[in-house]
Amino acid sequence: MCLIIFAWKVIPGMPLIAAANRDEFYLRPASAAGWWEDQPDVFAGRDLQGGGTWLGVTRQGRFAAITNIRAPSEKRPDAPTRGKLVSEYLSGNLSPADYIEQLRPRANDYNGFNLLVGDRETLLWYSNRGDADPRNGKPLEYGVYGLSNALLDTPWPKVTRAKAQFSSLLCLGAPEETFFELLADSTRANDCRLPSTGVSIEWERILSSIFICAPDYGTRASTVVRVPIIGEPVLSEQVADPISSCEAPPATEPQQKHSPCKLKIKPTPESLS
Q1: Mean model confidence pLDDT for the chain
Q2: Hey, which residues does 263 pair with through a beta bridge?
């Protein structure tokens, strides 16, 4: 999961609303969001290579999601899969705070990550690279937040762009399909606004858009989540067709957005709609 924009305790009666894109290599196998046979209260996609998941909810209102910290020079190929941190929380019964506390002693066994864990009352962000941030591992205050492949609210162009659009849609009371339109925005940032994260300038350009479309790698799924104060969470997903190339290069700011990758909608089960 490479972009998560979320509103925590901003909308009355709806503690959490989140919009997220999962970016991954097309060849990495994964299943679309659904109920897990071995964990019938968990609704999430599944990484069929490493196990675990990138984002999910439970019938009881638990929520978790993860993004990787982009730091190529620090990556250890023998580190355990970070997706297990999400599935471990969703399938357990520890409170968000207790889960983070039991994770801390082993957090550095993993490559860099941002983890969100919460329920209807509390939402925590925790990163094994975020010790300098006073919010790390603590309950978040109400507000709109953004996560990509750096620490919470790092002002990468895609994060600031998505947060602004997301906040506007919330204020308008916009329907769900408009959040998916936001997630399908493949406008790339101008070079002067690109971060320097240890990859080539060509990849910085590709990775700067909300929706990523490149040979072999890109946005695999877009998800909108609502966790109400009463009732089951609602998780809607759009799964992108894996492709090896794009039909045309995306525009850069401030030109009109262009989404060359076609999406297919996976219907949400009635119990979550």
Answers
A1: 91
A2: 240
Nearest Cα neighbor of 223 from 9, 64, 100 is 64
Which of 122, 153, 137 shows the shortest CA–CA distance to 3? 153
Q: Could you read off the pLDDT of 70-109 as tens digits, one per residue?
A: 999 999 999 999 999 999 999 999 999 999 999 999 999 9
Give tens-digit pLDDT for 231-246: 999 999 999 875 544 5
Closest CA to 265 of 216, 222, 230: 222
Contacts with 199 (C-beta within 8 Å, 6 or more apart), sequence order? 70, 72, 207
Of the candidates 12, 19, 10, the one whose C-alpha atom is nearest the C-alpha of residue 226 is 19
Exposure string over 184-193, b if 16+ CB within 10 A, otherwise e: bbbbbbeeeb
Residue 222, strand partner residues: 21, 238
Which amino acid type is present at position 52?
G
Distances 83 to 65, 67, 86, 161, 229 between C-alpha atoms, Å: 9, 9, 6, 26, 26
State the amino acid at position 87 in one-letter form. S
d(C-alpha 226, C-alpha 57), whole Å: 9
Contact 41, 187 (CB under 8 A): no
Residue 268 has pLDDT above 70, yes or no: no
The beta-carbon contacts of 138-142 under 8 Å, at least 24 apart in sequence, are 139/96, 139/97, 140/8, 141/8, 142/8, 142/9, 142/10
Q: Alpha-carbon dihedral of residues 152, 135, 223, 209, nearest 10 degrees?
A: -10
* Contact between 167 and 174 (Cβ < 8 Å): no
Q: pTM to 2 decimals?
A: 0.90
| CA–CA separation, 39 and 42 (whole Å) | 6
With 0-12 / 13-18 / 19 or more C-beta atoms within 10 angstroms meaning exposed / middle / buried, residue 132 is exposed
Q: What tokens were used for 96?
A: 């968000």
